[in-house]
Specification:
Layout: E1 2-5, E2 10-13, E3 21-26, H1 37-55, E4 59-64, H2 71-80, H3 84-101, H4 117-129, E5 133-135, E6 141-143, H5 159-165, E7 183-188, E8 203-205, H6 207-219, E9 223-229, H7 233-248, E10 253-259, E11 262-264, E12 267-268, H8 279-286, H9 288-296, E13 304-306, H10 308-332, H11 342-363, H12 368-385, H13 392-408, H14 421-436, H15 440-452, E14 455-460, E15 463-468
Parallel strand pairs: 3-4, 3-9, 9-10, 11-13
Antiparallel strand pairs: 1-2, 5-6, 6-7, 7-8, 11-12, 14-15
């Protein structure tokens, strides 16, 4: 398996730190509103990476956080006259609904920044003791960027070039920096903001320290893969490296993966331009599975353009796969020979090349576009070779093949074998009981189990509602 490493700018063979196991951290959304389709691209892609690695027999510990303390969250809370916690919890639940609609499995762990403050204080204290950080007069704690000799190794930026581009900061208030390039680890509280006690001042953490601490806690000091959108390479991921490696003395992540931007009708997505779309908008119009197929139709490192025409094309493509599976299911419903014919044996042997082509594509830096092409080649093969006289085993084997290849990409293409209403309601009741008992892990498992059967849950004020994906 080859992975393009942003750090080295080349494809490298993937060799996990611990044989058979993968530790992967992906930066999650800041929860102050409904997630937009730009958020959806990394969510869908890294969920697919996880699924494929699991298919290959690897045990994946996948951590993706929710940033639940941030200027935008605070602003939203103040506008509504409520607390940051109320806002963040509301949109975490909304985010989970949208993730379920796109068939994104819950991460192994979804840590919240506000629940990891003690770890952040410990790491900041370690950095101060190692002289990589210093407190200013007002209690702000800054990271001493120039002391970390490898700063810029991920983004390939030169410190002197960055320095020349920085505005000169006055040495007063929050700008009491030793160097304009130093960045914030801890900041003093302001009126109307949530805050926590620290040795330096009552305040809250900077954004970058949050991910360093959560990654360390749930995955260890050194991890296999760190991922996110390419907009996070600098400064966020660069700063994470500086913090984590200075604190631990070890390499932070062996492979850095970043997906390219998503544009809308060849323009950058922007609320002011009127081309801003939430996942909810698109799922309601096209279906989460269509959005997922669209996102995977281009290589993750290639900029992707979103338009109604391209979504309609993705819908037609998705329907084509589902129709193929539906036809196989229909044929299996009739009386037919149980044994394979010699011709069918030869055809099944021939069909193996599609899985081989699929795996070759996925092993080459997760080329989902070519993997999808392999699925469509299989669709054409099936449509050309099955008929009323096909044996039961032949049909079953072909159906199993296409459903499994689609499932690795998170695409639900077998929509016939669904749960009965009574079984669905029973699972929903069990999930509600788990949530009441604060067993959120079990609640997420039930949501994922239903999703795999094509059932999407929606938590509303009137209770839990469900619909077929």
């Amino acid at each position: 398996m080859q992975i393009y490493n942003t750090m080295t700018k080349k494809k490298e063979e993937f060799i996990p730190i611990e044989p058979g196991k993968v530790r992967m951290y992906v930066c999650g959304p800041t929860v102050y509103n409904l997630i937009h389709i730009g958020n959806a691209r990394p969510m869908i892609f890294f969920d697919t990476v996880r699924r494929y690695m699991t298919y290959k027999g690897l045990e994946v510990n996948y951590v993706s956080n929710f940033t639940d303390v941030d200027d935008k969250i605070i602003k939203k809370a103040n506008e509504e006259g409520t607390t940051s916690e109320v806002i963040s919890q509301r949109y975490i639940e909304e985010c989970k609904k949208d993730m379920a609609a796109m068939n994104i499995l819950p991460a192994t762990t979804h840590p919240l920044a506000t629940q990891e403050i003690d770890g952040m204080l410990d790491m900041i204290d370690t950095l101060i003791k190692k002289d990589y950080a210093y407190p200013a007069v007002d209690g702000t704690v800054y990271y001493r960027t120039r002391k970390f000799m490898d700063y810029g190794k991920l983004s390939h930026k030169n410190l002197d070039d960055l320095r020349s581009g920085e505005r000169q900061l006055k040495v007063s208030g929050e700008n009491q920096k030793d160097d304009p390039l130093d960045f914030v680890l801890w900041k003093p509280k302001k009126e109307g903001e949530p805050s926590w006690k620290s040795p330096w001042c009552d305040g809250r953490p900077g954004w970058h320290i949050e991910c360093s601490v959560m990654s360390k806690k749930y995955l260890g000091e050194s991890i296999d893969i760190h991922g996110g959108g390419e907009d996070l390479v600098f400064p966020h991921h660069e700063n994470e490296i500086a913090q984590s490696e200075a604190a631990s003395g070890h390499s932070f992540a062996n492979y850095w993966m970043h997906n390219a931007f998503l544009n809308i009708n060849n323009h950058k997505m922007s609320k002011s331009a009127g081309n801003f779309f939430t996942v909810r908008d698109i799922v309601d119009k096209y279906d989460g599975q269509v959005l997922r197929l669209f996102m995977l139709s281009a290589h993750y490192r290639t900029p992707l353009n979103f338009s109604d025409d391209l979504m309609e094309s993705a819908k037609a493509s998705y329907d084509r796969i589902c129709t193929c599976v539906s036809n196989l299911t229909f044929l299996l419903g009739g009386d037919r020979a149980a044994e394979l014919t010699d011709d069918e044996k030869n055809l099944l042997e021939e069909s193996k090349k599609y899985r081989q082509n699929y795996e070759k594509a996925m092993d080459d830096d997760f080329n989902t576009a070519d993997a999808i092409s392999a699925i469509f080649d299989l669709v054409r093969f099936i449509n050309s070779n099955v008929n009323e006289s096909s044996s039961k085993v032949f049909l079953e084997e072909l159906k199993k093949e296409i459903v499994e290849l689609a499932d690795i990409l998170g695409l639900i293409v077998d929509r016939v074998e669904e749960l009965g209403d009574e079984e669905i309601e029973k699972l929903i009741e069990e999930r509600q009981a788990a949530r009441k008992n604060k067993d959120f892990a079990r609640a997420d498992e039930i949501r994922a189990e239903l999703l795999e059967k094509g059932i999407v849950l929606e938590d509303t004020r009137e209770g839990v509602k469900w619909k077929k994906a």
